[in-house]
């Protein structure tokens, strides 16, 4: 399956990416390509994952890279719309301890 990534400008120095589909070894580079420049240009990046069906370790690596990039600039990465399945994956890997997660999209 493919991934679809839509950018929605936010207010001020924030933006949101709406991700749909599967984020895996095949599609994660597409997410990285859209996400990393936003991390360098914005103080806050919101990632709507409500339409993500599946994410593997490659996708988690993209999230970690974005988190580190924003953190180095005193910015923040916020995940919204995280499904119970994805939430369980984030908890198992310990990412819920470092990456902010909001309810709703």
From TrEMBL:
GO terms for molecular function: anti-sigma factor antagonist activity. It comes from the Bacteria. Residues 16-105 form the STAS domain. Keywords: Phosphoprotein. SUPFAM superfamilies: SpoIIaa-like. InterPro entries: Anti-sigma_ant, STAS_dom, STAS_dom_sf. PANTHER family: ANTI-SIGMA FACTOR ANTAGONIST TM_1081-RELATED-RELATED, ANTI-SIGMA-B FACTOR ANTAGONIST. Positive regulator of sigma-B activity. Non-phosphorylated RsbV binds to RsbW, preventing its association with sigma-B. When phosphorylated, releases RsbW, which is then free to complex with and inactivate sigma-B. Belongs to the anti-sigma-factor antagonist family. This is Anti-sigma factor antagonist. It comes from Paludifilum halophilum.
């Amino acid at each position: 399956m493919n991934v679809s990534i839509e950018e929605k400008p936010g207010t001020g120095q924030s933006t949101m990416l709406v991700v749909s589909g599967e984020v895996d070894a095949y599609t994660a580079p597409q997410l990285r390509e859209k996400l990393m420049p936003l991390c360098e240009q914005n103080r806050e990046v919101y990632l709507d994952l409500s339409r993500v069906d599946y994410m593997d370790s490659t996708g988690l690596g993209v999230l970690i890279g974005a988190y580190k990039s924003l953190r180095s600039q005193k910015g923040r990465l916020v995940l919204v719309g995280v499904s119970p399945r994805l939430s369980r994956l984030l908890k198992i890997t310990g990412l819920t301890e470092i990456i902010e997660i909001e309810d709703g999209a």
